[in-house]
Sequence to fold (287 residues):
Amino acid sequence: MQEKDFPALYQSTDELSKDRQGDFYRALGANLFLLVCAALLSVINFPHWAMAVVQAIALLGALGCSIFLAIQRPEKFWYAGRAVAESIKTLTWRYVSKAEPFNVDDDAATAMFQRKMKAVFDQNRDLASVLTTHVDSPQISEKMIELRAQTLSERRAVYLKNRIENQLAWYKAKASFNSSAAKWFFRLLIAVNLIAVILAIVRIAFLTVPYWPTDVMVALAASLLSWMQAKRFTELAASYALTAYEIQFIKEQARAEMDEQRFSSFVGDAENAFSREHTQWVARKDN
Fold:
């Protein structure tokens, strides 16, 4: 299963979530960068009106980013889009695997899948106005029909490789990345704060020196802290690692012999594990 093989609603909400996530971090990053630049310009001893103009432009840019974040709130559509996309993905894997509740005949399963898709959409009507892509694409692709028609052993192999192993690799990589990023940003934050303290102490011995970059270090430290809080490196590292462990346990269960009923239960347990992580997106959307 490739991204293009999933329902149109998944593809549309997935793209929306990624776009709004990018908008959020670009605006936040620009805001913090411009504030640090404005602080830096305030300590440059260059008495010319152009310097004041540049600083004013930097501050106006930072203000514009703040207004954009406050009014547009791209993180709301980011969270909502991700919550819907992951809900649809879970339904899709249950459907193509003939797993509960879609372990019935094809006609009944297809009708049930369409109803559940519609229910997810109805619960997130606020997204409708910004979902402009894949409008003409099918909600049940040919690949989905093809996978559902395969034998138990074939469906089991596809699910293990394209769902279990794919998700395990993704969560492990994300846990490692966020853990490493948390350490490096924390070290950088400590270093910047230490430099600010040293500058403040040295300034005591050189009171006649008019310009000190202490305020710049303070602004940089505040920006780093804000970025770390927005990225939530430590929290995500722990959450992703926990989910990766759970997926690994589930993967080991796949070694057992399975009939249709046991495979249905296996897929259900796996998707429930994924869903526990995805409920966090719903919680963030509703905040």
The chain has a mean pLDDT of 87. The longest helix spans residues 152-205. The chain has one domain: 3-97+106-131+139-285.
